[in-house]
Each structure stands twice: as structure tokens, then as C-alpha cells.
Amino acid sequence: MAHAASLSDGALSFNTMIHMLNIRLTPSTFILWRRQLLPLLQGQALYDHIDGSTPAPPTMLTSVDGSLSSTVNPAFTSWKQQGQQLVSLLLTSLTEETLAEVLHCETSQQIWTTLESLFGGDSKQWEIVIRDQLLHLKNDLSSVRDFSKSFCALCDQLILMGKPVDDLDKLHWFLGGLGPTFTSFGASQLAMLPLPTFRDLVSAAESFEFYINAMEVVSSQASFYSTTHCPSHPSHPHSSSGDRSSSGSHAPLSGRKGRGRGGRGRGNRPIYC
Questions:
Q1: What is the mean pLDDT of residues 19-25?
Q2: Buried b vs exposed e over 89-104: b needs ≥16 C-beta within 10 Å?
Q3: Least CB-packed of 3, 16, 67, 193 within 10 Å?
Q4: Cβ(97)–Cβ(30) under 8 Å?
Q5: CA 152 to CA 261: how far, in whole Å?
């Protein structure tokens, strides 16, 4: 019976396949985790270890007369080696939390079946969990771009489940998660006819965020300039409005009468706000 080549002899090496697994399994990422693994395992002719479609070959070779010999079957050795490499590949893709659930498993089929029973579950249950996460996801200190990535990751899980989010709900939940700073922005976006696409909404929110940050920088610079270049000096003889209005309190400037508040003063007199 012909069997698939071992991982080291296949089109992709074992180390290459490990680096291709970007999503590690957590209770909330099972669908994405399975979605990245299935095409890889099927493309490398390894999925038969998981679904059990190819049983293990005989452990020992048979003699000419049909009896078992004392020689180990090379096909069994190759099959077992391939299976253990697949076990290692699956375990590498797990987090510590999920790894603890399969420590008792010895084969890749046992690992896969255990994880499916634990995290596959009722799709309706996971749909509710993910929708609740979307509804309560808040943009605390991250940028609009980072928040949109987290938001879209949850939406993608629902798409893979065949339960995509309604366009209006998607816009409304995203705007609600941006926080109170974006209240006026969100109201203006939802008032548009037709409603913007989600991609256009994210782009507009990033532009609004840039505008807010720019205004904060300008305000900060203006405040800094005011406090450093125009200090208040109550002790200065001319800083009090009462002194300025007192009769005869102003001495002549440069030996002649001044020209009111806009007149010329001595060139070395400091200017106060």
C-alpha cells in the first residue's frame, strides 16, 4: 500500500510548515485555526492521518507463505514517523491553554477530535459569543487602524461560520467602539445617504483621528508659547489695570509725552502681556 511521503521529503519541510501557522489555537480562534490548517494538511497529503481514511499498515512484513516475519514493515515505520511529525506540528500551533487539553492524546487524529469536541461546539453558541465581543469591543488607547484590525478579525470569524454581520450593524458597532471622541463623527457618517462602505468609514475615521491629533498639537504649542513668551507679572508697575488708570502715574517716555498705549516707549523696556 502506497503512503504519502514524510514531511521532510514532501514539497514543504516540517520547519516551513511550522512557520506557515500564523494563528495559534485559543477557545475563540478555532475556526480560523482550522481554516489555516486544513488546506495545508490536504495539500501535503497529511489529512488522512486526521480523518483516519488511511489505516496504519501492518507492523511486520509477511513471509512468502503468508505468515508474519520478524522484519519490521518499512511502510509502517514511515507512516508512524509521519504521524508523529504531524502530532508535533499540531502541538506547535496550540497555546498553553489549549495544549493542556490534549496532553493525553497520542495520535494526530485523537488531538484533532478532542479539539473539535472542545472548541468546535455549537456554531450558534460561538456566533453569540463573537457577536457579543464585537458589540463590547472598545478602542481604549489604540489607533483607529489597530482597532479596525481587531474588529475585522472577529467579523472574519463570523464570515467563516457562514454568519456574516449585517452592513448596518457593522457600521454601528464599529462607530460605537471608537469612543466618545468620535460621537459627532459617527452621527455625521450614519446620516449620510447612501451609507458609506465599511472600508470608506475606516478611512474617514483615520482622517478624523489625524485631524484631532493635529488640533491637539496646535493647542499644546499655543499654550506653551503663551506661558513662555507672554508671562504675567503682577509686580510690574504697569501690570495692574488700576495703576494704568491712575492719574499722573505714567512718567514721560524718552523725555516727552507718550502717544497713549500705542506710543513709543524706551527701546529696552520689556513687553508684557
A1: 88
A2: bbeebbeeebbebbee
A3: 193
A4: no
A5: 63
